[in-house]
Amino acid sequence: DAGVIQSPRHEVTEMGQEVTLRCKPISGHNSLFWYRQTMMRGLELLIYFNNNVPIDDSGMPEDRFSAKMPNASFSTLKIQPSEPRDSAVYFCASSSQGMVSDTQYFGPGTRLTVL
Amino acid sequence: DAKTTQPPSMDCAEGRAANLPCNHSTISGNEYVYWYRQIHSQGPQYIIHGLKNNETNEMASLIITEDRKSSTLILPHATLRDTAVYYCIVSDQGGKLIFGQGTELSVKP
To answer: How confident is the model over A55-74, as pLDDT tens digits?
Structure first.
């Protein structure tokens, strides 16, 4: 199994530009999570989906952030417009049943730098 | 906010057992204790979880006190590759994983 796949692994962009991060969960998993990690705030849950439906987006910092899951094998996290304070490592994770007690498998992350 | 308290850092000699403590005095009856770790520049990795009984798997053992207010993660024979930040998390089955600052474990030769 390839595990959770994220792309790109690194992204450098300028303030004001649109950024799209992509995630392919493990095949057969029906829950998907987006996290953000910074030195100041640690690892934060932004949003999670169960069966492609957003369940909790209370962690999304503001309207500039949006996430979609059009099918079971693909999700995007979009930032428009991006700001320097969005610089962070963004992780995607998936699990098999949507229960927290199920193991979450994390991808390698996307390191975003907004200049 | 995270419901757990962990020491910020610990050292362990290679080959010895690493015992990582976690306090969760406000844990409720339906909440599990989870441990994840994050090796530098990688995504977090699940280690183990438990409700009230002690648990063991190929990676580690989890000891939960009878009152469930604290727990200890045990890596029986630490290696250099176990150097990582270890997160203790308390959550119920329908809840979210809220990561605190964790314990930075350094395994030294």
So the answer is: 989 999 889 999 999 999 99
